[in-house]
Design goal:
It is a single chain. By secondary structure, this protein is mainly β. The chain folds into 2 domains: 1-98, Sandwich (Immunoglobulin-like); 197-733, Maltoporin, Chain A, CATH 2.40.170.20. Helices cover 5% and strands 56% of the residues. The chain contains 5 helices and 39 strands. The strands form 5 sheets. It has a 22-stranded antiparallel barrel. Strand 29 (515-518) and strand 30 (523-526) form a beta hairpin. The longest helix is centred in the first third of the chain and has 15 residues, at 2-16. The relative contact order is 0.11.
Length: 735
């Protein structure tokens, strides 16, 4: 009997480990093998590179469709789908030289299509590209993407704004799960570090079909660092220095993979002194320190793929209030914030004969403390969130792909500090959805429908009629939403996308129940338990033209929002703080982005890029909405070069970024003057012995222009944004 059991177990194991193999040769148009081409299967987190003969190979692959990306600088990215049914499959690829960027696989959308096949226009940017712009934080880099801005508090805190919508209206995903970190507050930043992040995808517009509540305005989807290629071991080090803040950003990581197992770990430490404004003064207590740790463990075989990741992030942030003591210390003063964030995720794919199941599980523990004038936290909130997302990809029927899914969240908020800003509460979300994608020739149509329910209950706290009193709340919010999109190639070079989608956002706990001083905003906030869902419908039009030497795009949108929630001053003052209350009104936002990229022949080393973005937000009565970014015109000239054999992939950029006057302001805002910033960049790959150093030198605001951004929270205090800043960065593999 024992032998039978062993034979049965071994037979079942062999079935799971079906040895599907895939290999091939990558060549150029003139049939020359290409060495060093990156070949990657994103769903399995497996990668390899071609050898001297241009050959690549994979083993232990599942049956069915497998999507591969072939990536090599200077060549068009090849994204291929291969149906594996044989034990051994040969698949050769020919790479074509290109002068423009790659056509990336978009992970944040349902069917993971490449951009040229997507019905939605999704902005994609690698973190390397954002870092080359010399920005000191992740959100500063994101704000260089057309349609994306930031609400900032000095250099330490930034909240993303997508086409005029921010806060809980923009959903953030990292490691495949939604981030929850009390993001209702203007002074509550992302809580994410760019170390260990591969790229970001930006969905501009309602994405409730895929993500439910809080995706009313858009989604930021961060793709984590890839694992090492099979049978390799890498150790990587990077260092950035910042002249203005005397800052430092240090990162060290290592990763290794076998055929089935993968492991990586990365640590990062960031420290900055108070930032300097153009007149030479430092903004007191704008200093901050950040510690970040990421690790991941993955396993894949022919039946399933699973990846566990963990991210710990600790922020020690000073909250600037005035131009006071001048110092270069990096030790934060009062008032300050201390934020610890733990993010655990488990992302798995199970393969069946003609279908598959995606399952994403996440747990986030956010501990937010605010210190007023002593080491004892006056405010402490612990937010614990478990979320899940299961998507079943049904068997393909002809040219139609379809997905059904269930998604949800369980969340608790608990107070431990002396003061309460929001009460202890529990939130439960549940959503079910279905979506389908039909593709023929150069046309794609995609649509779907979804139902969501959010239940929120809070505990009574304090004495009725007193500051810090919260009545018990027991609320339920429902919403049906749908999306329909169409993409077609009008000509070989001209692509049209048209999308119509609805979205919603349930009122958050702060909007429903606030009753106290929000220390970070210096105002007294009063919630409204009678708030309704925000519900919107948005139309998007995207037109793109692309040939070998010229790209052009124009995006237009119109967004109508019922029951838009915002704060409005009551005219009262409590404890020297102006009182704000949450109210609702219908609103509309409209605008778009337009841009071009010129690469003239035969000047193959020269690129010119320009983009313009605009958004207008109004209430039903014609008054303007608050926190709408100023119009922006961004121009960049980039050159590419190499110097003999020691400097490769060299680049030099000159950037002029112009922000126009913002006079379309709400009742309690003030107008903002326009300004233009000059930025320069220089970098490339420097080879010393066997080590390749990636270097970049950036000069931001080189003319030391004094300005105050319209979305700066220090604007009311008359404190300018950061002055001239020189950034030096180096990144290299130790071995």
């Amino acid at each position: 009997m024992k032998n039978y059991i062993i034979a049965l177990v071994l037979g079942f194991t062999a079935l799971l480990q079906a040895q599907n193999k895939l290999s091939g040769t990558v060549t150029t148009n003139d049939n020359q093998p290409l060495k060093g081409v990156s070949v990657y299967i994103a769903e399995l987190h497996k990668g390899t590179t071609t050898n001297e003969q241009g050959v690549y190979s994979f083993a232990n692959l599942p049956n069915g469709n497998i999507k591969l990306s072939f990536i090599f600088i200077g060549f068009t990215t090849q994204n291929k789908t291969i149906n594996l049914q044989e034990k051994e499959t040969l698949f050769d690829v020919t790479m074509e030289e290109t002068l423009f960027e790659m056509d990336e696989v978009i992970v944040s959308t349902a069917f993971n299509k490449i951009q040229s096949q997507n019905v939605m226009k999704v902005e994609h940017a690698s973190i390397k590209e954002l870092q080359q712009k010399g920005t000191s934080t992740l959100i500063e880099g994101l704000a260089t993407i057309p349609g994306v801005s930031q609400v900032s508090t000095g250099t330490s805190i930034g909240k993303p704004v997508i086409r005029g919508l921010s806060g809980n209206r923009v959903l953030v995903y990292s490691q495949g799960v939604r981030i929850e970190n009390q993001q209702f507050g203007d002074e509550h930043g992302l809580g994410l570090n760019d170390s260990g992040v591969e790229s970001v995808e930006v969905i501009k517009g309602p994405a409730s079909l895929l993500y439910g509540s809080d995706a009313l305005g858009g989604v930021l989807y961060f793709n984590p660092e890839k694992f090492a290629d099979a049978h390799t071991f890498k150790t990587n080090f990077s260092q950035k220095l910042f002249s203005n803040t005397l800052g430092s950003n240090t990162s060290l990581g290592l990763k290794t993979s076998t055929e089935n197992w993968k492991f990586l770990v990365r640590g990062n430490y960031v420290t900055h002194s108070d930032y300097t404004i153009p007149d030479g003064d430092r903004v007191t207590n704008s200093r901050y320190n950040e510690t970040d740790f990421k690790t991941g463990l993955g396993y894949s075989n022919s039946s399933f793929s699973t990846v566990f990741r963990y991210n710990f992030n600790r922020l020690d942030l000073g909250l600037p209030e005035e131009m006071g003591e001048q110092t270069t210390t990096k030790t934060t003063d009062y008032p300050r914030q201390g934020v610890d964030n733990h993010l655990l995720s488990l992302n798995s794919v199970v393969y069946f004969k003609n279908s598959k199941l995606d399952l994403d599980l996440g747990y986030i523990a956010n501990d937010r403390q605010e210190f007023e004038d002593s080491p004892t936290a006056i405010l402490q909130m612990k937010l614990k969130t478990f979320n899940y997302n299961a998507k079943y990809h049904l068997p393909k029927v002809g040219k139609m792909e379809s997905i059904v899914g269930v998604q949800g969240m369980h969340q608790t908020n608990t107070n431990f500090g002396e003061e309460y800003l929001i009460p202890d509460a529990t939130t439960n979300d549940l959503g079910v959805f279905g979506t389908a994608n039909y593709e023929w020739k150069s046309n794609v149509i995609q649509g779907g429908i979804r139902f969501d329910n959010r239940k929120l209950s809070s505990l009574e706290h304090g004495e009725s009629g007193e500051e810090g009193y919260f009545q018990a709340i027991d609320k339920s919010f429902d919403s049906f939403n749908a999306a329909l999109g169409y993409k077609t190639n009008l000509t070989q070079e001209l692509t049209l996308r048209l999308n119509l989608a609805s979205g919603f956002r349930a009122p958050n706990l702060a909007e429903l129940s606030s009753n106290g001083v929000h220390e970070g905003t210096n105002r007294y906030e009063i919630g409204n338990a009678n708030l309704k869902n925000e519900q919107n419908i948005q139309t998007d039009l995207n037109l793109e033209y692309k040939n070998t030497h010229f790209e052009f795009f124009v995006n237009g949108f119109y967004n109508h929002i019922n029951n838009y929630i915002f704060t409005s001053p009551t005219g009262a003052v409590l404890d020297d703080n102006v009182v704000f209350e949450y109210i609702q009104d219908d609103a509309k936002l409209f605008g778009g982005e337009v841009g071009l990229h010129l690469h003239p022949h035969p000047l193959d080393w020269l690129h010119f890029e320009t983009s313009f973005e605009t958004v207008t937000g109004k209430k039903q009565n014609g008054d303007y909405l608050p926190l709408i970014p100023a119009n922006n015109w961004n121009n960049t000239i980039r050159t590419e070069f190499s110097i003999k054999n020691w400097l490769k992939e060299g680049f030099a950029t000159l950037n002029l970024n112009t922000f126009f006057n913002q006079n379309n302001v709400s009742g309690f805002e003030t107008s903002s003057n326009g300004y233009t910033l000059l930025n320069l960049g220089l970098g490339g790959k420097l080879t010393v012995g066997k080590t390749v150093f990636n270097l970049n030198l950036n000069g931001n605001n080189l003319l030391n222009k004094s300005y105050i951004a319209h979305l700066s929270r220090l604007k009311t205090d008359g404190i300018p944004n950061i002055g001239r800043n020189i950034v030096l960065g180096v990144n290299f593999d130790i071995f």
